[in-house]
Design a protein that fits this description.
The structure is a single chain. By secondary structure, the chain is α/β, with parallel strands linked by helices. It folds into two domains: 3-67, Hypothetical PUA domain-like, domain 1 (Ribosomal Protein L25, Chain P, Beta Barrel), CATH 2.40.240.20; 74-233, SPOUT methyltransferase, trefoil knot domain (Alpha/beta knot), CATH 3.40.1280.10. It has helices at 18-27, 85-98, 119-131, 146-150, 195-203, 218-233; strands at residues 3-5, 13-15, 35-39, 44-52, 59-67, 74-79, 102-107, 139-145, 159-163, 182-187, 207-209. α2 (85-98) links the parallel β6 and β7. α2 (85-98) runs parallel beside α6. It catalyses: uridine(1498) in 16S rRNA + S-adenosyl-L-methionine = N(3)-methyluridine(1498) in 16S rRNA + S-adenosyl-L-homocysteine + H(+). It holds the Pfam family PUA_4. It is found in: Cytoplasm.
């Protein structure tokens, strides 16, 4: 059964906005009495019956609510955005399917895109959550200055890593992590992190890590990091 998303679900009955009402009533041709599944992106799965399939103001009644707690581990990916936003949209879609919790975009020395519009990324994220039947919606943070981010005391309890291209950086991420932890992984732009940025991260408690023996594109590296941490925690 298809999963739908509505951020604000309060009480036993809720009404969809015009866009979602039209999608449910006209596009999908759902009828009064039909059963549909909704999530609020905060862990809850709602089984609902359609009380009114008005294409402008569809009303639903909740008949069952199931809450799924968050995983014991937490994956935070911090990445420099690529110049081509299609590649970032692809990555956000795929890491959502695999499973992650939070993403922050970094303004680095070799950044290719210093400004970001998050609307399309958020839509891709929501769509991927619905497609992969996830009830927890990951967090997308605005772009932030690299130096400010790596010195943030909020990450002191995380297992922190920086992935970069270096033949001497041979210890793979999966061999440096332990299950059921909070992880923060830094991924650089196409031109990689600058030597100064790498040194600064290491001085602030980040461990160098490898994501494999081959050079990866930025969005591929992000996906590999998230997938690796999921493998570690789902064995």
């Amino acid at each position: 059964m298809q999963l739908f998303y509505e951020e604000e679900i309060n009480g036993d009955v809720f009404t969809l906005d015009t866009q979602e009402s039209n999608h449910l009533g006209k596009v999908l041709r759902k009828n009064i009495g039909d059963t549909v599944l909704f999530t609020n992106g905060k862990g809850s799965l709602f089984t609902c019956h359609i009380e009114d399939n008005n294409p402008k103001k569809c009303r639903l009644k909740i008949v069952e609510q199931i809450f799924t707690p968050m995983d014991k581990f937490h994956i935070h990916l911090a990445i420099a955005p690529t110049k081509n936003m299609d590649r970032m949209e692809w990555m956000v879609e795929k890491i959502t399917e695999v499973g992650f919790n939070e993403i922050t975009f970094l303004k680095t020395a070799h950044i290719e895109r210093p400004r970001l519009k998050l609307d399309r990324l958020e839509k891709k994220l929501i769509s991927a959550c619905k497609q992969s039947f996830k009830t927890w919606l990951p967090v997308i943070n605005p772009i932030v200055d690299y130096d400010k981010f790596i010195t943030d005391s909020a990450f002191q309890t995380h297992e922190r890593f920086i992935a970069y291209v270096d033949q001497d950086n041979g210890e793979h991420l999966i061999n440096q992590t332990t299950p059921n932890q909070s992880y923060l992984v830094l991924i650089g732009p196409e031109g990689d992190f600058s030597p100064k940025e790498i040194t600064s991260a290491i001085n602030n408690g980040f461990k160098p890590c490898s994501l494999g023996k081959h050079r990866l594109r930025t969005e591929t590296a992000g996906l590999v990091a998230v997938h690796t941490l999921n493998l570690l925690n789902n064995q």
